[in-house]
Specification:
With 208 residues, the protein is mostly helical. The chain contains 8 helices and no strands.
């Protein structure tokens, strides 16, 4: 039972950690191009808003597996669905925020957004791609748990690979290749933006 609990928890919660990185990256992209005035949500609250939604989703889903093991399968199933719905709604709002910001900055570009050495467009496209993959995975998981143990997804193993494992593997590859490590909001003294994003993301997460 122990290995089952660990496996199920890691499969459920992994994409939630991806989501936290995505939320933080958007805030840093907006700050780097000095486009705070173009964001729908105040940038100082942007990361906090979505990461808190992520934390709630993480906590709700994380408690589902122990409940199922303890014999409360129905409540465990409900918690998984609720957690995935929170993640889905959070991602949808995030997607709208990113798209609206992109349209606004194209209409009213800032001086920084016109600098060729700032790869903010490529970074936004990367965020769109990984967000879409996690959305597909979340929708699949909601359908899977809604249909239950006798539903098609849980009785046919190939669905788990195609709609869960493969999308998350692609997310890892995209992050590895196009991770916005050179997007640094305070790189005015360093036009190449060589300060890695990863070095300060942990501090930003802790401030939330």
């Amino acid at each position: 039972m122990g290995p089952y609990v660990l496996t199920n928890a890691f499969v459920l919660l992994g994409p939630t950690l991806f989501a936290a990185s995505i939320y933080m990256a958007l805030g840093r992209i907006i700050r780097r191009v000095r486009g705070e005035h173009l964001s729908v949500i105040r940038v100082s609250r942007l990361t906090k808003t979505f990461v808190w939604g992520d934390i709630i989703s993480f906590a709700v889903q994380g408690n589902s597996t122990p409940l199922s093991v303890l014999g409360y399968a129905k409540w465990g199933k409900i918690l998984v669905i609720v957690g995935l719905l929170i993640q889905l709604i959070s991602f949808f709002i995030f997607w709208l925020t990113a798209i609206i910001f992109s349209k606004r900055i194209h209409r009213k570009p800032t001086t920084e957004s016109l600098q060729p050495h700032i790869p903010w467009k490529k970074s936004l496209h990367m965020l769109y791609a990984v967000s879409a993959l996690i959305l597909v995975r979340s929708i699949f998981r909601i359908i899977e748990y809604t249909l239950g143990n006798d539903g098609y997804p849980l009785t046919h193993e190939w669905t788990l690979y195609i709609f869960d494992s493969v999308p998350m593997a692609i997310v890892m590859v995209i992050f590895f290749i196009w991770y916005p490590s050179q997007i640094n909001p305070n790189s005015d003294l360093d036009p190449e933006g060589n300060i890695p994003l990863a070095s300060s993301m942990s501090q930003e997460y802790l401030r939330v």
